[in-house]
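Human:
Take a look at this sequence-structure pair and walk me through the tokens.
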Amino acid sequence: MKRSALALIAAVWCTTAAAEPPTWNRFEIALSGGYGRSRAGGTSTFLRESATAFYTRLSASDAITLDSAAAVLVGGSCTFYLTPAFGIQAGFGYLKSAITGGSVFRLEAFRDAPASRQVSWGGSGEITAVPLFLNLTVRSRGETVRGRVSGGLTLFLNAFMAEVPAGIEAVEPVWKAGAGDPPLPVLADEKLDILQVPISVADTTWIAVGANLGAGLDVAIAKNAALSIEARYFLCPAKTFAWDWTLGVYNGLDGRIAGWNFTGDAARAAGQKTSSLRIDPSFFQISVGVRFFFPGPRRD
């Protein structure tokens, strides 16, 4: 009887030992790069309507449009798994996108008859986003192919700048000698022209809190390494910027006015007629990379 019991215990132990599951990977380190597309773009307008002694109506307007170009994104992450399927992930990314676009200026004037003129220019700038994220992640079980989903909070370190030429109307009086001794000047005519004035958003950095959500697929290439493809969206609150009109001395585009002094008062008045620019630093990425695994304890 005792021999039978001992034999049964030995058989159970051997069966359990043979069926003991392998170790599971508790740590993951990933490095990746790929395509990133920022949502940083927006529109602004300048509009001013007025009248003078010789022009019964003047309407000057700028339509400013900006967009971001696709760019290369790099990033990395480190994941600690509390169970074979559930873990905590920390990581970073880096995306710098060029800003493209420009402005269209239109001047409408009525003197003896209506007239209009339109001019367009290109603009430039850049936006940089550095997301630092802390996520919860879930992965599927598999020896060769595994899926992943993760999401959580993101701290964004952002920077933005832009510069675009803008148009503005300029009216210069033409005087002639009138009656009197000495003769008093009399307004004889007015010269109307267009000034090209650079407007800009100065290089600005700021910190914002947002979120991210992504999913990926890993294909094993070695015991502790896999090729990884991932799609992720980083959501960041938008920020509003005011345009600064650049002081200086400008010549009219049509050659009617030369050496026009665009003063601080003129710049402030133009700025009050220019709508703010709303920029959304959120971006989408598709990346590929390598993921390294480090084993942890055996499954219970």
Q: What stands out?
A: The two ends are 32 Å apart (CA to CA). Residues 229 and 288 are 4 Å apart (CA to CA). The first helix runs from residue 2 to 19. The chain has a mean pLDDT of 91.
